[in-house]
Amino acid sequence: MRKLTVLLFALLYAYNTTAASIELTTPQGVMIGDKQGTIASFKSIPFATPPVGNRRWKAPETAPNWTGKRTATEFSPACAQVPYAQGSMFSRPHLPSSEDCLYLNVWTSQLEGDKPLPVMVWIHGGALTRGSGATNIYEGTKLAQKGVVVVTINYRLGAFGYMAHPELSSESANASSGNYGTLDQISALEWVQNNIAAFGGDPKNVTIFGESAGSWSVNHLTASPLAAGLFHKAIGQSGAKFDPMPLLKKVANNVASAESVGVRFSKHLGAENIQQLRDLTAENILTGFDSFQAGGFSQPNVDGHVFPDHIANIYKNGQQNKVSLILGSNADEGKNLIPPPTDKAKSLQYFKFTGGEHSAELLSAYDFEKNPMAASYGVFRDMVFTWNMSEWASLAAKSKQDTWLYYFSFAPPSPMNGRLGAYHAAEIRYAFNNEHVMFGEGTPNQAEEKLGKQMSDYWVSFAKTGEPSSKGHAQWTRYSAEAKNYMRFDKELKLEQDLLSTELEVVAKVQAAAWK
Fold it and tell me: How confident is the model at residue 83 (pLDDT cuts 50, 70, 90)?
């Protein structure tokens, strides 16, 4: 009898969670999506014309409307990329990729209501070389249930998204090249402005958010004049770029010009001109990109169009898009990104190379002699993540932007029974209230469920009102240059001050030395 009861409940659950079709008329045309409970989802919506053939390495063009009914129930392929190696915690099985990838996905509860809902647009991470808006950890149902419209997007990656070249600059009306991935993101935000009302979203209340390279992208968009007015709030999770960027045509700060790297890449592939590059298959480009050695190839450049100056200078001069911000990073960013630094001699060499004239100060600030491994993880974390997020917060606060800083130190029990600590990307599950998305077997424990509710509450509250709050939980006060308040997200939330002040003071000196 008990087995029969369990079976009946299982069948009822399956019945109640089976998606039903839903039809929606949009400015682009009619589409058919899924509806499960109160949430409707529409996937693989084109926001730009496929960047294939002679459109490869060109700015995105608005996707044409369609006639008839478009089925929008399956995700599109990811943008063309070399997959993560097997065994990486970021690898995803059976993830097809294609150059025809400029699509987005929407989750909404408001197709018939009178009051439009705030919109949250997620930009995925992956070093600007990998990733997709279709990963299960980014599934938007839980956030949509809290009263926002969720959008996830794809954008061109790697050589397809960021290669500059003199010929490409010459054929451009703006005399620029590269930055195609950023232009794709801007195109997606323009789509939101023109279409999201049909999904119950408010184009006048858009929050962009992202993690790692998605947070780099948020940082990029806050600095690009082309994105002005397309969003109203922004959340950056572990990623910003306040070091010198490549210039389009000139060497500066010991960084090669973006065009010169593109020319080297073309020669690496055996192509003499852009047409020959466009004639190559996507697989040829990916194979060549995977074997190409050039630091910073997959990143935006100062082209005078998308980016009129280094992002650091744009912020220092107060020329950024002044929107409210939530910014932060994690306590153990390096533990799933770099090999365990167990060789003391090599770790010492890393400190000296990284610190340069400030290496002695760096060794002292991180107490290298006491624990070389912890010191190596710490300096990697702060050079790449903590300092950039703190610098972003400081410069924004100086411009009178409402800014909130956080530090995520909760150690998820999976994977490796929590031994990775608060690893890079650990917070995403909780920000999406998707703590049930696990690495391996298991279910979220009580602490995870609590944190998922709290963190997603703060994120959604910020999207709705411009202030992060969670009913019954700690009040998160703004960041300022004087108080340097930040929220620690852990088993218990706690407002603290002056994050890693000793370490970041030295890191700031090292970062300043990069500008020649």
Answer: confident
